Amino acid sequence: MTQMADAEVGARELTSLADYLGSALRRLRALPPLDLELTQAYGNVLAKDVVAPHPFPAFDLAAIDGYAARWEDVCTAGRGAPVRLNVIGDLSASSWRPVRLTPSTCFSVAAGAPLPGGADVVVPITWTDQGMAAVEIFQPPKRGSGLRRAGDELAAGSVLARAGSTISPALVAAFAATGIGHVVVRSSPRVVIIATGDELVEVGRGSQPGQVVDANSHALAAAAAEVGALAYRVGICDDDPEGLRALLEDQTLRADLILTTGGTGTGPGDMVRRILSRRDGGRAGPVAFTEVALYPGTTLGFGTVGAEEVPVVCLPGDPGAALIGFEVLARPAIQLLSGAEPVFRPSVRAHLLDTVTSPVGLREFRPAHVAERRGGGYTVQPLHGGPYTLSGLMEANGLVVLGERVTAATAGSTVDVLLLDRRR
């Protein structure tokens, strides 16, 4: 940022990012819950606690292939003095008739088979002569080894997951294993992404004077999907007032949140701000555009559109600034709509590896690479920021947060870092 830009920032009255987010996000509510079959539930956020109706395992079972026996019958086994037991049957995972051991007898069992009554140990098959009618055991097992008791992993009545948790593959397995076929979840927010500007052209070509390739709508659709939203990229809308109004009205029918990019400034071509902030009958327009103490980006729009009052977030046209705006405002909005917790990304304190400067009066989010140290804690390497934020974000797994009063952070100092999860 140039000295002139610094002076312009100082001359404007900016809203702190914390105050802005607080006032904007308080207006959002989680989407209504719905009941989903388990096969459709992955990735959704639970609307209520899930309690196990049945235990897991559901019954006592063999954990390994071997011989189910009474420990008192095999505890004296040894290489020089093997214990000999009569094998009175075979049990597989599909066996269902109840059976019971008598002294000096055992059952040959497969892993997953229900335990016979009286059994309190399963002897590994490799510790025996693998006999069929009778078996010799050469090594004494520990009491309770080789088996699993009903409910020893998940007891009936235990809370499997709390409301606000995102359903993972492991949770799907736990729900199914304890007899759950439906769960109550929050809907995945339907997010519509619109890029605006007469200068925009579709991807597949290079930008040239008077034409700019639309990178933002593709990037924001990917960012929304990363959070778990159902992202719908509408594409490019020209700077046509009636066309923009009609498109927004049409998209409110299928959207829980609308993201626009571009047109947030005060120039002659900034149609989004002109249309959505227009006063009607002395009242402010449905979307307020605010100068926020944020770098890069500064201007953000937030409000509602249409009869259904669908929330809309208006982001800058610069790709790096649009993605930072998404992180600080749109992503938390999606998390709130989906009922997910926590709303904001996790953060850590990390030792800065290089000295960085930051514009006065603005809270900067600078791309960075964060790493864990062997002895504990984190280090963070700052990457390109400011007008080069997009190239920095390409390599980043974190965002260094530099406060409004920070003009320089020296190497070796400790800074806050938001962790970016790029696994989804």
What does this structure look like?
With 424 residues, the chain is α/β, with parallel strands linked by helices. Helices cover 21% and strands 30% of the residues. It has nine helices and 28 strands. The protein has helices at 3-11, 17-25, 71-74, 169-177, 216-227, 241-251, 271-276, 319-338, 389-395, and strands spanning 33-37, 45-46, 50-51, 61-62, 66-69, 83-91, 105-109, 121-124, 134-137, 147-148, 159-161, 182-186, 190-196, 200-201, 212-213, 230-237, 257-261, 287-291, 294-295, 299-305, 310-315, 347-352, 356-357, 363-372, 378-382, 398-402, 408-409, 414-419. A six-stranded mixed β-sheet has the order 16-13-17-21-20-18, sandwiched between helices. The protein has a five-stranded mixed β-sheet with strand order 8-5-7-6-9. Strand 20 and strand 21 form a beta hairpin. Helix 5 runs parallel beside helix 8. Mean pLDDT is 92; it is low at 1-8. Belongs to the MoeA family. This is Molybdopterin molybdenumtransferase.
Short key terms for the protein model shown above:
alpha/beta, six-stranded mixed sheet, 9 helices, disordered N terminus, MoaB/Mog-like_dom_sf, Molybdopterin molybdenumtransferase, molybdenum, magnesium, transferase
Helicity range: 10-25%
Q: Tell me the total number of β-strands.
A: 28
| Portion in strands | 25-35%
Q: For the CA atoms, what is the radius of gyration?
A: 31 Å
What is the molecular shape?
Answer: elongated
Mean pLDDT: 92
Total helical segments: 9
Structure classification: alpha/beta
Q: How is the main sheet built?
A: 6 strands, mixed
Task: Detail the poorly predicted runs.
Answer: 1-8
Name the quaternary structure. single chain
- Main-sheet strand order equals 16-13-17-21-20-18
- Report the span from N to C terminus: 33 Å
